[in-house]
Amino acid sequence: MTGPGTNTYLIASGRDCVVLDPGPPEESHRRAIIAAIGNLRLRGVVVTHTHPDHAPLADPLAAEFGVHTYGYAPGPGFSPSRRLRDGDRLRFGEAVLTAVHTPGHTADHLCYRMGGTVFTGDHIIGGSTVLVEDMGEYFRSLDRIRALRPGRLLPGHGSRMDNAAEAIAAYIAHRREREAQILRAVGDGARTVAGVVEAVYEEVDPRLRFAAAGSALAHLRHLADQGKISLEYGEGTGDEPWEIAAVREAAVS
Ligand SMILES: [Zn+2]
What we know:
This protein is an alpha/beta fold. The protein is 32% helix and 23% strand. The strands form three sheets. It has a five-stranded mixed sheet, covered by helices on one side. Strands 6-7-8-9-10 form a five-stranded mixed sheet. Strand 2, helix 1 (27-37) and strand 3 form a beta-alpha-beta unit.
């Protein structure tokens, strides 16, 4: 699920630095980060969200250097010693890193802005789309980052994006297109998550079907929130906990 791996950033200003998203607790990776810090003064360990490929090395690394960890909220394998809220600023050297709360991929997701650069974690990644827990929040968070008018994006996976406006516009367009496809699939008679995935995500690797189902469900909930369809939540069996009960609006093309 991590594509080419997780990106860890060492952000330096003068002699001071912070580490952003140190990653999983792998010894070789820990040694590589410490080698990169070298003679710099580590001032803190910053985390975008608590997924296991981003955060678990944060607490042990910070303990080793006697510095704080920063993040939105505790989660599996990570408990920030300083909790950040939207707009909170971290100063080190001449640099200021500003937390931007961007729920959607996860509820606890923070991006970090530094001048014209935004560190986007798993909100926007290079060369792929991301899994989304809450689509309404996710759309709002994309608008939020677009409104900052960043020049470049440095993601948690994949390559840097030097044309941020283009990358954000492509993300928003992709999500709108996906949602229109799903609404059409419901209009055409799909009544379960599996049915929607079948109709819309034809090309998906069978091993990633659970991920497609998660995204489809997030879109369906968003469509229901907008009053375009209604969902019926039953007892269900884990991966199929509900049915689409009714289409309130004819599918539009
Ligand atoms: Zn993630």
